[in-house]
Amino acid sequence: MKQSRFAAAVSSFVLFCQTYHVKLISMTIYLDNNATTAVAPEVFEAMVPFLQQEYFNPSSMYPAAKPARAAVETARQTIAGHLGAEHPSELLFTSCATESINAAFFGAARANPNRKHVITTAVEHPAVLEVCKELQHEGYEVSYIGVDRKGNLNLGEFVRELRHDTLLAAVMHANSETGVVFPIDRLARIVKETNPEIMFFCDATQSVTKMPIHLTGNFRHVDMLAFSGHKIHAPKGTGGFYVRRGTRIRPFMLGGHQEFSRRGGTENVPYIAGLAKAFDIAAVSHDADRVRIEMLRNKLESAIVARVPYVEVNGAEAERMPNTLNLAVHCIEGEGILYQLSEFGICASSGSACTSGSLEPSHVLTAMGVPFTAKHGSVRISLSRYTTEAEIDTVIEAFPDIVARLRRLSPYWDQEKNQPRKG
Ligand code: PLP
Asked: In the predicted model, is pLDDT for residue 25 greater than 60?
């Protein structure tokens, strides 16, 4: 009772502020950590020396440049060690996951021109899907493996699509929208048992440092792996590309002889040092972070499900990243919810992409078969180690009223609220 009065008061206050264009809150509650993360203070500190006194080009021959070279090679050893790679030289530094993905696909294609078939999933990030489209333009066939309503990959279809001329199987580890995790160890083993010539690529951008990845352990059949710094509290503009020894690929970024002549371009020393620091921090804090983040996510999820009718949690029945909550709120648009959340300083995101004036529903939720009235109302909330319980409590207070208010304006809501609930 007390709570609902409080919520009603907050709601009227928000309405007043919206009506009179009063900027409500300058405080930010950042819950969009699958989009990007804050740079950790320790990461920032690790970068500073290489922005200031140790600014030299790591390829320069004079002694002053030695610390910069040492920083790059130490970072390589550190990250390769955390990932369980056999040798540090299997890890190349890039500018982002998108670059690593392009390097994997086009590098593999150029080195193996007779293999013209690629397998991927219907729910990959656009960084993979757009590259696949481009390969299709170039005459490749691409099989897009579907998922079920829970978000799990159709394993039978995956196995059936493996062919004698398949170049590459590319499967993401954790989905950026729903957090659903695919069984990479199993899929990569199936590929290698079926045809060891087929390369296995994994986009681990959302999972690296957050889920167990060991390239000589559970990921030992993975040939190539991509990740990005800015999802793990390192800065934007740095990423990693793991290429197992013996994997036949051509370099994608041509230029100087950096990165063992496999990726031209002067190494971004400060950001590489920061990236290694981010891995170090995660290695120490991962278990505790995971428990706390999952507890907060679950608290938020159960409170919203209890207080808001006609809301589904996309991916809840599959193995899921502990930090991700994807809600399908029936009969309203995700963008409306985001706008209202932003009035409380809350940053989240929706699955829709605003293209050419029309709101396209998320390709991930479409592949999962989420119904029309729900997939347009999808909201993704993603936590990090910096998320506090007070922030989650603010969302729990704000969310039900925002939904109720938007539904009062929704033409679909009047019809749906009186229907018996399915599934
Ligand atoms: N792959 C996945 C699964 C992602 O979530 C993202 C970014 O959201 C990317 C690739 C692209 O990452 P970057 O921005 O570092 O290129």
From this structure: no
Maximum C-alpha span of the chain: 76
Confidence of residue 356 (pLDDT cuts 50, 70, 90): very low
Q: Which two tokens stand for residue 75?
A: 């970072």
Q: Which residues fall within 8 angstroms of residue 249, CB to CB, at 6 or more apart?
A: 103, 104, 107, 108, 110, 111, 224, 243
Q: What integer is the mean pLDDT of 288-294?
A: 96
Q: In what order do the strands lie in the sheet with 311-313?
A: 311-313, 324-329, 378-382
Pocket test of ligand 1: the residue of 228, 321, 349, 363 to mutate, having most ligand atoms within 8 Å of its CB, is 228
Q: Does the model's pTM come out above 0.90?
A: yes
> What is the domain range of residue 158?
41-280
Beta carbon of 249 within 6 Å of any ligand 1 atom: no
CB-count exposure of residue 374 (10 Å: 0-12, 13-18, 19+)? buried
CATH number at residue 171: 3.40.640.10
**176 Cβ closer than 6 Å to some ligand 1 atom:** yes
- Please write the tens of the pLDDT for every residue from 305-324: 999 999 999 999 999 999 99
Residues 66 and 155 in one domain: yes
| 333 and 402 share one domain | yes
